Amino acid sequence: MNESLNQSATFEAVMARSTLPEWLLALLGHDRAPGEGEAVTAFGQTLTMQSGILRTDLETSAKQTQTADAFSYKWAQRRSYEGSSRKTQLRDWLTERYGDVTAEDWLQNAPETCVLLDAGCGAGVSAQQLFGQVLSRIRYLGVDVSDAVEIAAQNFADQGIAGGFMQADITRLPLPPESVDIILAEGSLHHTDSTEGALKSLALLLKPGGRFMFYIYKKKGPIREFTDDDVRAKLQEMTPEEAWNEVMALSKLGKAIGELDVELEVPEDVALLEIPAGPINLQRFLYWHVFKCFYHPDLDLDEINHINFDWYAPRNAHRQTSDEVRAWCANAGLHVEREVVEDAGITIISRKGQ
Ligand SMILES: C[S@@+](CC[C@H](N)C(=O)[O-])C[C@H]1O[C@@H](n2cnc3c(N)ncnc32)[C@H](O)[C@@H]1O
Predict the structure, then answer these.
(1) 12-219+319-352 is classed in which CATH architecture?
(2) Sequence-ordered strand ranges (E) for 155-261
């Protein structure tokens, strides 16, 4: 290969691996990548390049800051979510709810210029499991308010998938209106200060005809709601590390109950407590109606604790009803194409009106 071709191939490879690819620079209204420590402005925000990632200077509320700190800690525990059983389980759970989106015409026919915004990307694991190889042929933009975005960028680089990354607040993103083709907000909207506000502001970034896919926690029965609020309030007083250790006791209890593998027959509906009649495993009964104590026989204690910590530690963790979510979609001009409501949450694929 001659020298200049070689150099240009190297340049392209570097740009493909960069957390700030050319198409993202263009979306931000710039044509030159800032150097380390350099700041750029975009849509009224100052973004500074730190450790190779653009980060907003906007302040967040105390609740949002605590939530971001909890996630920075959680996603740094890579061992607790990168195992193959956990990945398979995550893929199955995502597919049950969203279906196999890679088989959908709108994704199969998506052009190379298609921008997929992973709003609240964490370590980027859900997007990878849900979109698989498709990520390599479209433009992936991972945004998170926490330091998890660094892990996502690393994770994508490790897998050889190009992507753009920013540390910013998904309720105030410095992107042009109607500039994004697909939004995935898997488990993130309810961790912002306002689930409805996040949905509304993200919908404005979506192109007409674009898809908005998201998962939001569902409101549970009264005992579970009480325990959730009580445990969450106690953990707020602790550092993320202390909270991780405190939740571990609860995870061990859930595991002990799960290993009993006992079936219970609820004789009739207990309407007052929103507990339905019928057979249910004891661990699932406690999990759904008394306190969240995730357990799965294929996962080890760290992996189990990761899921319980994810639930209890962040200060922001709002729960909604299906009616609320449908009304918000209608107000934001989103037509619901698929809705899966299960005990844990509400999953929606919606399309923005043309
Ligand atoms: C439960 S995790 C889900 C991560 C990822 N979507 C996944 O499914 O693996 C929620 C993520 O939303 C992020 N988040 C919460 N509030 C946010 C906000 N206002 N702006 C951007 N990210 C936010 C958290 O930092 C966290 O990484």
Answers:
(1) 3-Layer(aba) Sandwich (3.40)
(2) 164-167, 180-186, 206-217
